[in-house]
Specification:
Blueprint: H1 2-25, H2 38-70, H3 77-99, H4 113-135, H5 144-163, E1 166-168, E2 174-176, H6 180-197, H7 201-215, H8 222-236, H9 251-263, H10 265-277, H11 283-288, H12 290-312, H13 315-321, H14 325-354, H15 362-394, H16 408-445, H17 472-476, H18 480-499, H19 501-504, H20 520-531, H21 546-552, H22 592-600, H23 602-605, H24 627-636, H25 649-666, H26 676-686, E3 691-692, E4 695-696
Antiparallel strand pairs: 1-2, 3-4
Helix pairs in contact: 1-2, 1-16, 2-3, 2-7, 2-14, 3-4, 4-5, 5-6, 5-7, 5-8, 5-18, 7-12, 7-14, 8-10, 8-18, 10-12, 12-14, 12-15, 14-15, 14-16, 15-16, 20-26, 22-26, 25-26
């Protein structure tokens, strides 16, 4: 069931990815419809690939390998079924709510509070069933793949729960308890380690099982697997701050993120070497066997990604790569090469085993391999090129000391050919996946499914203390609960050291007296900004580079974000940074009428713009019935609105809205005071205005 779900959601997730890629080229593919804009569709693509395609792939491999490695069936059949149907239900809920604009605004953790609770429940059911099965095993020791399965279970649970602490203000909406710098640190502690412990450690476990099985050779080195495992899970958890270099987090946190990221090269490459050297003596088979071909490229892509990641954490390189398409290329080498190809190889190997038959077509599988490999190249190389182009153009100055390319759209125009190539590469990858589905369909039709296999190993006899001559780790492999506790300790240390001091040491986030809470209208506008996914294209973080301060204004200060629930610093600039766009004396200030026309028809304002239109903002009304609840939750989170302000907040909202609408009408734009367009304009005109030219703004 999980294998079928992997194939289904893989096709869906890749199809959405192809749509997203073509929306960059043809903005009309946003369809002028609220539910199909890039800002809403992009998180559907990322969540579908990560949690639907890769997630179901993980569970496919878990349920197949775990029972065979432990010589026993799953402890609870009903838990397994609840896990399957619960996970598919979560995926459907995710797609529906994200397209409807219900998002937390935090990348890879966009799902709202009711779904977060459901995820935690289903994850615990999965983990309980797994640990129960491990305890009733018929083998003395737990194999290296299971080490990674255990670490994945406990770490993902910790990451998800800590990052998802939020206070609801409606049935489907909430505000995170963290704000600004703290929210950024927690989010990228989660975001980086979601990559580590959902896209990496479980797949390393699958590699340690399926690669030796497919090659019919033992894993190269037991000792190397021990070093690989413990070093990886301890070091990985520290690396999150490298996503926030040169940004408004403490320098010590940035340095820790960089140092531990560099150290990650050793265990990561240890795993890659262990995988590739397992194929010693089997290289002749690689030429013929598509399964081994997929595995070799997958492990190589893992090695490439885990070398490039630490390199991107060096400040000198991060200054070039961050906020550009270089990061997109890096991510997709991992997603398409490591996760995608390992999944494809596992599926090609697994289905003939499950259906007691041969793969329908080796030739089709080989064709899929070459199409997929070319697709990765067609996708990633143009994105690397685009990233270098963006960084080069945005940082160039004329001899007179002015920006050579002051208009961000000049850069977008230059990299459009790379977007065409990316769309072609993504489409090619998608077509390759179709070949896989067809091949598996024909394989299934030609076989007979084996639903159950008897466990033949005798029951395990309990053993106590470490025996003479038994290594400490070998002994630990007989104690799965102790093993799990040690794994929890290893992953908690880094998170505690990096996150807790931002709460306890006030000097980490200096306060700025002029920074005030958002007005009720601006708060509504911010929520609309988040709902529309504007953070997917625009950052709100000006780094202390001359090229950025000349283009956008005064660099960002940590104290400016203390009321931002959630933070909106962004991770990719498809459009310009917006943090100082409201500063009237700033380089990028735009009047209210410009914002209105830009939302209604971006291409009318600039023919080469690739931004979607948002005409519904002029039709949809502000939900005044939600204002009081929003204010009360913000007060609970420490935002200093006056006591009882929730009862009169709408009066202030209406007064501010009327002023903006009156100004628009004076410009010949007819709009009612209660439209969402008014709210989002109010928000854009507010952000970044608490500080002007490095000094507190006069209010």
């Amino acid at each position: 069931m999980f294998a079928y779900a992997t194939l289904f959601w893989g096709i869906v997730g890749m199809l959405v990815g192809v749509l997203v890629a073509f929306q960059f080229i043809f903005p009309e593919l946003n369809f002028n419809f609220a539910y199909t804009t890039f800002g809403r569709v992009r998180p559907v693509h990322t969540n579908a690939i990560i949690f639907a395609f890769v997630g179901n792939g993980i569970f496919t491999g878990y349920y197949y390998s775990l029972q065979r490695l432990l010589k026993t069936g799953m402890a609870s059949k009903w838990m397994s079924y609840v896990h399957f149907w619960g996970w598919q239900f979560i995926i459907v809920l995710a797609a529906v709510t994200l397209l409807a604009g219900f998002t937390s605004g935090k990348e890879y953790a966009e799902l709202e509070w009711p779904i977060d609770i459901l995820i935690a429940l289903i994850w615990v059911i999965f983990g309980w069933n797994m640990m129960w099965t491990i305890l009733k095993r018929r083998t003395k020791h737990i194999y290296v793949a299971i080490w990674f399965y255990i670490a994945t279970f406990v770490t993902v649970a910790v990451l998800h729960i800590v990052n998802s602490i939020e206070i609801p203000w409606s049935l489907l909406k909430s505000y995170p308890v963290y704000a600004g710098v703290q929210d950024a640190l927690v989010q990228w502690w989660y975001g980086h380690n979601a990559v580590a412990f959902f896209l990496t450690t479980p797949y390393l476990g699958l590699m340690y099982y399926f690669l030796p099985k497919a090659a019919n050779r033992p894993i190269y080195s037991y000792k190397l697997s021990i070093l690989h495992f413990w070093a990886l899970i301890f070091l990985y958890i520290w690396a999150g701050p490298h996503h926030l270099l040169y940004q408004s987090i403490p320098n010590w946190a940035q340095s820790l993120g960089t140092v531990f990221s560099i150290m990650l090269i050793a265990p990561s490459w240890g795993g890659m070497i262990n995988g590739l050297l397992t194929l010693r003596g089997a290289w002749d088979r690689v030429r013929e066997d598509p399964v081994l071909k997929f595995f070799v490229v997958a492990v190589t892509a893992y090695g490439m990604s885990t070398f490039e990641g630490p390199m991107l954490s060096l400040k000198s390189i991060n200054a070039i790569s961050h906020f550009t398409n270089w990061t997109v290329a890096h991510v997709h080498i991992g997603a398409m090469g490591w996760n995608g190809f390992l999944t494809f190889g596992m599926v090609y190997w697994l289905f003939p085993k499950m259906f007691k038959t041969k793969l329908y077509s080796i030739k089709l599988a080989n064709l899929h391999f070459w199409i997929g490999t070319l697709a990765i190249l067609f996708y990633s190389i143009p994105m690397y090129w685009a990233g270098w182009t963006e960084a080069s153009m945005l940082k160039q100055f004329t001899e007179a000391g002015t920006l050579m390319y002051p208009n961000f759209l000049q850069v977008v125009d230059q990299i459009m050919p790379m977007y065409y190539m990316r769309a072609f590469g993504g489409t090619l990858y998608f077509l390759g996946a179709f070949l896989l589905v067809y091949n598996i369909y024909k394989t299934v039709k030609g076989g007979s499914f084996v639903a159950y296999e008897e466990a033949e190993a005798p029951a395990l006899e309990k053993e106590g203390k470490r025996k003479s001559g038994e290594g400490y780790h070998r002994f630990l492999e007989r104690k799965p609960i102790t093993f799990m506790i040690l794994a929890i300790v290893a992953i908690l240390i880094g998170g505690i050291v990096e996150i807790v001091p931002t709460y306890l040491i006030k000097s980490n986030i200096p306060t700025i007296s002029s920074v005030k809470p958002y007005t009720p209208l601006e708060l509504h506008g911010r929520d609309i900004y988040v709902a529309e996914g504007c953070y997917n294209c625009h950052s709100q973080m000006i780094r202390p580079f001359r090229s950025e301060t000349e283009r956008y204004g005064e660099y960002s200060k940590a104290g400016e974000y203390v009321y931002d629930h959630p933070f909106q610093w962004g991770s990719k600039r498809t459009g310009p940074d917006l943090w100082r766009i409201g500063v009237k004396t700033g380089k990028n200030y735009k009047p209210d009428a410009w914002h209105y026309n830009h939302f209604m028809d971006p291409q009318k304002m600039n023919a080469t713009s690739i931004m979607p239109a948002y005409p519904w903002l002029a039709r949809y009304e502000i939900r005044l019935d939600q204002t009081a609840a929003k204010i009360r939750v913000m007060q609970t989170l420490g935002v200093p609105y006056p006591e009882g302000y929730d009862l009169i907040a709408n009066d202030d909202l209406k007064a501010q809205a009327a002023k903006i609408a009156e100004g628009l009408r004076a410009q010949g734009i007819e709009i009612s005071d209660n439209k969402q367009m008014i709210a989002i304009i109010a928000y854009l005109q507010r952000i970044g205005t608490d500080i002007v030219n490095g000094e507190p703004a006069a209010k």
